[in-house]
Structure formats: C-alpha cells, structure tokens
Amino acid sequence: MRPLFYAMLLSGCAVLPPDYQWHRTSMLPATSYEWTVVKRDDLYKVCGINPPAMPALGACAFNLQQPRRCYVYSHLTEEQAKREFSGDGESLWDHEMKHCAGWAHQDRSKP
Questions:
Q1: Which of 28, 99, 104, 107 is deepest in the core (most CB within 10 A)?
Q2: Is there a contact between 39 and 7 (Cβ–Cβ < 8 Å)?
Q3: Number of structural domains, the chain?
Q4: Each residue's pLDDT expressed in tens, for the chain with a length of 111 residues
C-alpha cells in the first residue's frame, strides 16, 4: 500500500485550470517511466478523476518514490501525445514528463 500512498503525493493531469503555474515539489524525479494506453472512458477511473470536473482529460501521471518510477496513463499513444497540444504551450507528452520530473501545477486563481 505504501507505493500507492507515494503515488498520490505527486499525480498530475493534462487538463489545466485557466490560469496556472508550474512549481517544483519536494518529490524526486523518476528515473524511468511507463506509458500505458487506456480507453478514453476508462481514463477517468484510472486517474481517479470525476468526468464532469475534467471533461477534456488527456493523461495523468503518478510519480512513485520507491521505486523512483513514473506511470503515465493516456488514451493516446506516446507518439500521438508528442504531437498533441496540452493547453499550456507544450505537448501532452512534455507536460506529463514534467510531472514525472517532480513538477506540479497550481491554479493561480485560487489562494
């Protein structure tokens, strides 16, 4: 159960609030990652997201600290994600790799 706890400490999704910024977390960067394609309808369940809250969910990443491995789930293949715009000026793949590197984003419109 411990890895799941660590996974939940740094998880990220490629659906962004209207005004957000990246910030470095205390989590160590993953030393490897695994990209898994899931059905679009199953992505919400895998990522633990309520569909109405994020209707355009593209992917999510879970950065485990022991072992230092990142698990990315998306309805797109890795190659498709490298060409897909995530809404913040970078590809969906680059966005998820930032989460794997220990970064998170925060909505600036909320205190």
A1: 99
A2: no
A3: 1
A4: 333 333 334 456 655 555 678 899 999 999 999 999 999 989 999 999 887 777 788 999 999 999 999 999 999 999 999 999 877 778 999 999 999 999 998 766 665
Length of the chain as a residue count: 111
Using CA atoms of 106, 78, 52, 61 in order, give the dihedral in degrees to the nearest 10. Answer: -40
Residue numbers of the domain that contains 93: 2-107
Amino acid making up residue 71: Y
Dist CA 43 CA 73 (whole Å) = 7
Judge contact between 23 and 105, C-beta under 8 A. yes
CA distance 75 to 15: 13
93-110 CB burial, b ≥16 within 10 A, e <16? bebbbbbbbbbbbeeeee
